[in-house]
Design a protein that fits this description.
By secondary structure, the chain is mainly β. The protein has 1 helix and 10 strands, in the order αββββββββββ. The model is unreliable at 21-27 (pLDDT under 50).
């Protein structure tokens, strides 16, 4: 009887330990299971309309961090500019909020791959805005103020250029 009692106690302790390990693996309601997003952005960091991908690389409760890359062309401005060239925006994002409503801020760089000396090629930007995204995936909507700064000299306007911009993004997270 003594052996069975020790065995029963050991088995009970084992199951309680297993229960404790499984309880520590719980996920919070704020945790994003849908860490990837694909969206189109009107205005913002691209020249006019860009296609973008971002991924949440860090999350802890209300705070999340993401990296973003996009692609667009100047095809919308070909009447004013010579040739068609690619434009690549990249950005590091901070996201703060619970559930689906978030404050979003970021810093980034946009490169215009053109040899035209009248056009700015290297643009640095910031972002302050709002992001709607369900933690489980689905619709993504972003609205933000995205001013550009370029330190390049432009023959028409020498010195640093600050260009205020706004962006609207709509897409899907998964």
């Amino acid at each position: 009887m003594h052996f069975t009692s020790a065995f029963t106690r050991s088995l009970l302790v084992f199951f309680l330990l297993l229960l404790g390990f499984s309880a520590s693996a719980q996920t919070y309601r704020d945790s994003f299971r849908a860490r990837n997003a694909v969206y189109g952005e009107l205005g913002g960091n691209g020249d006019f309309l860009s296609v973008n991908y971002d991924r949440i690389v860090y999350q802890k409760s209300m705070v999340k961090a993401a990296l973003r890359i996009g692609i667009t062309t100047n095809a919308f401005f070909t009447a004013e500019e010579s040739g068609v060239y690619p434009v690549i925006p990249v950005e590091a994002l901070g996201i703060i909020g619970r559930y689906q409503k978030h404050f979003e801020f970021g810093l980034g760089y946009t490169r215009r791959f053109t040899n035209d000396p009248d056009l700015l090629q290297n643009l640095y930007f910031s972002r302050i805005g709002f992001r709607y995204q369900q933690p489980t995936g689905g619709l993504v909507v972003r609205v933000g103020f995205t001013p550009f700064l370029s330190t390049e000299s432009n023959p028409r306007r020498p010195g640093a250029a600050i260009i205020p911009r706004f962006g609207l993004s709509v897409g899907y997270s998964f």
